[in-house]
Amino acid sequence: SGNISSNGYPENIICEWTYVTRHGLQFNLEINMLEMEGSKTKDPPQGCQSSVLRIHSELRTDDLCGQQEKSYYFLTDSHWFTIQFISLNRQTKEPLRGFQLLWTVVQVKSNETDNECL
């Protein structure tokens, strides 16, 4: 297990982290703090144009931005994931904290069953 975080909310920065574990294992990610510009939920949605926290696994990519009050969970679909933190030209100067993420390695539960006739 471990954590990844932005050191505050710097401007004009692109950071990338990639983690890999053994085949047969996955990562469970918990974003327990997200305070960035943009929003995918406001009406109208602003999107993640100037800042994004992108979580990418084999077949899944989630783009996060804005401010979240509750933890966000992401279970990878493979034995690796990549996090990108992109903060371009900030539109606001309000003090935002960026993000904090905790990751743990979890055992994949197999959906395979024996082909025996019972």
UniProtKB/TrEMBL annotation:
Disulfide-bond pairs as recorded: C48-C65
Domain CUB: 1-106
InterPro entries in the record: CUB_dom, Sperma_CUB_dom_sf
Keyword vocabulary terms for this entry: Disulfide bond
Name the record gives this protein: CUB domain-containing protein
Organism: Rotaria socialis
